[in-house]
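$ ./design --mode recover --in tokens.txt
reading tokens...
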């Protein structure tokens, strides 16, 4: 099994994409169908909820609620592993730290469209890189 912590920007991009074969859509489809196990915790779920319901994004609220419920149901909950790694945005720390914890259970990756928000690490990958790694 391959595990992934999905940065919020990947979910938003998948919902806004007009291309069903885009990397972000393929990543999220793999999560929804169980090919990839999404790793979450309460802080990540709260971040998803906050961002997906921002009015300026103009996302369908019912669709977002369904996706949030699905992710909450299928997601593997893991407590973060604290790190002193420097991050430009403190809100991103939880994604990195939960991925660190996920490394203890198997092949875990942090999938993000904002690589510069995280320290350089082999497990921090773009959606396109993750698609290649996971064979999506």
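writing sequence...
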């Amino acid at each position: 099994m391959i595990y992934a912590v999905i940065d919020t920007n990947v979910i938003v991009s998948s919902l806004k994409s007009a291309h069903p074969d885009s990397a972000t859509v393929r990543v999220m489809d793999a999560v929804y169908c169980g090919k990839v196990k999404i790793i979450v915790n309460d802080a990540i779920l709260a971040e998803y909820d906050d961002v997906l319901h921002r009015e300026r994004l103009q996302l369908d609220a019912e669709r977002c609620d369904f996706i949030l419920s699905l992710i909450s149901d299928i997601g593997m909950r893991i407590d973060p592993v604290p790190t002193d790694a420097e991050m430009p945005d403190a809100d991103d720390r939880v994604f990195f730290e939960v991925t660190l914890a996920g490394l203890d259970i198997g092949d875990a990756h942090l999938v993000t469209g904002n690589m510069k928000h995280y320290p350089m690490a082999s497990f921090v990958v773009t959606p396109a890189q993750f698609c290649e790694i996971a064979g999506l």
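exit 0
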